[in-house]
Specification:
The chain has about 190 residues and is an all-alpha fold. It is built from 6 helices and no strands. It has a single domain, classed as Alpha-lytic protease prodomain-like. Helix 1 packs antiparallel against helix 4. About 40% of the residues are buried.
Length: about 190
Amino acid sequence: MLFAVLTIVFNIVEGVVSIWFGVSDDMLTLSGFGVDSFIETISAVGVAVMITRIRNNQDTDKIRFEITALKITGWCFYILAVILTTGAVFNLVQGHKPESTLAGVIISLISIVSMLGLIAAKKKLGRKLNCQPLIADANCNLVCVYMSVVLLVASGAFELFDLGWIDAVGTAGIIFFSVKEGRESLEQAKALK
């Protein structure tokens, strides 16, 4: 349960900081990354409830909250993808580029290191307790690492080359993973029924 709480707290802080700098620097990739952190928080709450249910009574059926959390998470990812697609197209058409992406570089590096440590710890504990939901949550966190790498590459490339369209390319990477995560969340919700 400690790992679920850590994931929730980390994602909330990461989301607030990312959105703050994303908006202040006009960086769509970082703003999208921040919103993704809040969606991951919803998912982490669902996993925390599932772990609690399994710990207290393994023979109980899947509760409605778990299914609802997965559905909300899935649709939030899809909505994020639509918003980011609209923003990326608008930025490309208008020739808009971020003021700076240094915050994106720093936030992505912190996220990569933190998430890799959290993933390793969750998997170790999940194997020790034979808790498949915790191992599955660790695997879901791997997508956060992928998104962080996309943010790092897009932010670093912009800092080096100052090309506005790089933010749109980074945003496309966030969109890809958002759609993938949305689909997986909805498929998991359907499987639990």
